[in-house]
From TrEMBL:
Family the entry assigns: Belongs to the class-I pyridoxal-phosphate-dependent aminotransferase family.
Domain Aminotransferase class I/classII large per the UniProt entry, residue ranges: 121-499
Protein name: Aromatic aminotransferase Aro8
Annotated Gene3D superfamilies: Type I PLP-dependent aspartate aminotransferase-like (Major domain) (3.40.640.10)
Source organism per UniProt: Purpureocillium lilacinum
Claim: Transferase is one of the keywords in the record: yes
Record key words, sorted: Aminotransferase, Pyridoxal phosphate, Transferase
One Gene Ontology biological process: tyrosine biosynthetic process
UniProt cross-references to SUPFAM superfamilies, sorted A to Z: PLP-dependent transferases (SSF53383)
An MF annotation (GO) of this entry: 2-aminoadipate transaminase activity
Length: 511
């Protein structure tokens, strides 16, 4: 099905649908907005036996459950919500780019989006009140359609719900599935925020080897096959960043994802798919490629790798998406998708913690994505955003080739995401052959990494130490650094790489 056909199908479905509820914090669900199935798809398996001890006894707040009534026009004497009459704001007005990334547009040409009290499509007083933890029906409808269009889940009872960003979502997911002392499988280099969340819950990370395509299936298989149950329960949760991986920038191929999913089925793993960089597709060379006969949008869609959600036939994947890398991180809004049972449990946790994403953030996303851009405009934005980041990536790659010493430095060519991973071989380090340091190569690695980091920062360039991301045994006679081409001004990238390169070269000087 082409992208245009998807859009037409969603429009037909909306034309026949009931009006969205307009009351405060209405009960809503992805099931209201999904395509009606003929019963040809399987149901997800249940995970009661795999929920944590805490999660197994966790239930929704009775006050929140009472507010889920589908009956409208209720006079509420039971919910302690302040009356909108006393809110000090009457409306919110936003200006946005009409054409995605049309940065040269004049202020007068920017369309004005407004949300006001009493508005039919999204009443501002409703947005400013407490919200339902799954999200507003206005935004959840768009997200459900988006997930269905992009990932096409293969089982019947899947759902999405909104989150307050992936950091919060991960903390909830670990609480749902893990007990203190459990081991979680992760890539050997991974996001430090995830490791911190795990440590806070008494969980232990077990690093799986990586190569140029990310997590290595054979090492995952070996660690599971050889697991000694006397050392503790066999790991059940696999956490992975499959696209534009943070920090290495690697992207798992379609074949590799299928291998890893098959291992998950064999060993009954549950996969947490953290995929914030999925839509930042830059190609594996500077020229890109075109598929004959495809429209611009279909060409972009063809670049997207199959997600674990799209491969999942039994509900063993919880996929996490976020607005942070594709719209703005200050929105603190994202969404998770999984089986109805898992998403219901996730919502129950949200009800007693974050409650729901910010109402103004949901208004901003709804007005932009649904009312202004639509699904086609959103995909055009993502395609254009990918091209902008590709230009930045290529600028940084050219600078790396120009300034870094090629005899000791190596790096990959990321086709997704925001990161370059530079590995420095210390085999030629002048101190390696000194008697004092030869017996302590790990200390040499630690000291060399810190000196490069400190010198680069002293000269005005901040990089990230590879050791911050490392899980398990340190690299042997290598140090790594994560560089991002997303944050600095494009015109500053070459200068920044030159400064970093000078710090690297100074480490290998004999003085």
């Amino acid at each position: 099905m082409t992208f245009s056909q998807h859009i037409a199908r969603f429009r037909e479905r909306r034309a026949c649908a009931e009006p969205l509820p307009t009351e405060v914090a209405p009960y809503t669900s992805s099931t209201f907005f999904k395509a009606k199935q003929s019963g040809s798809k399987n149901k997800a398996r249940r995970w009661d036996h795999r929920f944590s001890l805490e999660s197994a006894t966790h239930e929704s707040s009775p006050l929140k459950s009472a507010s889920r009534s589908k009956q409208t026009k209720l006079i509420s004497l039971g919910t302690a919500r302040p009356t909108p009459e006393y809110y000090p704001w009457m409306s919110m007005h936003m200006e946005t780019l009409d054409t995605p990334l049309e940065g040269m547009a004049s202020q007068s040409s920017l369309p004005l989006m407004s949300c006001t009290k009493g508005e039919d499509s999204y009443d501002f007083s409703v947005a400013m009140n407490y919200g339902y933890s799954a999200g507003s029906p206005q935004l959840l409808r768009f997200i459900t359609e988006h997930v269905e269009m992009i990932h096409k889940p293969q089982y019947d009872d899947w759902e999405s719900c909104l989150t307050c960003g992936t950091t919060s979502a991960l903390e909830i997911a670990f609480r749902m599935f893990c007990n203190r002392g459990d081991v979680v499988l992760v890539e050997q280099f991974t996001y430090p925020g995830t490791l911190a969340a795990m440590r806070g819950q008494g969980l232990h990370a077990l690093g799986i080897e990586m190569d140029s395509l990310g997590l290595v299936p054979s090492d995952l298989e070996q660690k599971l096959e050889s697991w000694d149950c006397t050392a503790g329960p066999k790991p059940f949760v696999l956490y992975t960043i499959p696209t534009g991986q943070n920090p290495t920038g690697t992207t798992q191929s379609a074949a590799r994802r299928r291998q890893i999913y098959d291992i998950a089925v064999k060993h009954n793993l549950y996969i947490i798919e953290d995929d914030p960089y999925y839509f930042l597709q830059m190609g594996n060379d500077g020229s890109g490629s075109k598929s004959r006969g495809l429209s611009e949008l279909d060409e972009y869609m063809a670049q997207l790798p199959p997600s674990y959600l799209s491969l999942d036939v039994s509900g063993r994947v919880l996929r996490m998406d976020t607005a942070s890398k594709i719209l703005a991180p200050g929105l603190r809004c994202g969404w998770v998708t999984g089986s109805s049972q898992v998403v219901d449990k996730f919502i129950a946790y949200s009800e007693i913690s974050v409650l729901s994403p910010s109402g103004p953030s949901q208004v901003m996303m709804y007005k932009l994505l649904d009312q202004s851009w639509g699904h086609d405009g959103f995909i055009r934005w993502l395609a254009a955003l990918s091209q902008k980041y590709r230009q930045r990536r290529d600028t940084m790659l050219r600078a790396l080739e120009r300034f870094l010493p090629m005899d000791v430095c190596s790096w990959g060519w990321p086709d997704s995401g925001m990161f370059l991973w530079v590995v420095i071989d210390l085999a030629k380090h002048p101190q390696l052959h000194c008697a004092e340091t030869a017996s302590r190569p790990l200390k040499l690695c630690q000291d060399a990494e810190d000196r490069i980091y400190q010198k680069s920062m002293a000269n005005g360039v901040l990089v990230s130490k590879g050791s911050w991301f490392s899980v398990g045994k340190p690299q042997d006679r290598h140090v790594s650094f994560r560089l991002t081409f997303a944050a600095a001004a494009k015109g500053e990238l070459a200068h920044a790489i030159r400064t970093f390169a000078e710090a690297v070269k100074s480490e290998f000087s004999s003085n």
